[in-house]
Structures are given as C-alpha cells and as structure tokens.
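SEQUENCE WITH STRUCTURE:
===
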Amino acid sequence: MEPHENGPSRPRSKSGVAEEWLDEEVFLYDQGNGDLVQCLNSGAALIWVLCDGNRDVEGIAGEIATTFDLHRHEVLAQVQETVAQFELMGLLESMDGEP
C-alpha cells in the first residue's frame, strides 16, 4: 500500500488486524499479510485505538492533548508520523471520499 501524501483523512484500522493487549502494549496481527506482527508501545497503542475512522489526524492529536493536558502542537507531529507508519505497514483503511 502506498501512503497518501497527507495520510488518510480519517484513519481507521484495517479489518483483519487482530489485537492482543499485554499491559500497555498491543500486538497487532495482520492476518491478511501473512500474520505480520507489530508491537506498539503505549503511545503508539493509544494512537492506534483512536484510529477508528471518527477523527482526522488533528482530531487524534487534540484528543491526546486534552487527555494528557498537553498542547495539540506538541503531539501533532508524533501522531502524523505514527499514522504514516501504520499506513506504510498496511494497517489502515482510508475513509477518503466517504461522507
């Protein structure tokens, strides 16, 4: 999957990706990609959970900023980078063009 120039407008986890939580980390099993396994630390796991198709990247950053009493601009770059990595790994579906 080629990443979108600006990433998906409202990132959503791809169907067929199973999650297994161990403490604050999550292991992702992409069953459609030869059972590819990814381990996410607690920060990336939080971003993963928020990739539900209901928020854009700025909304995800805003949610994290509000929850942890941070400025949105402090977390936006990290969220953008993490979502881009999810997309490069083929873990996201794009909701571009959907109402």
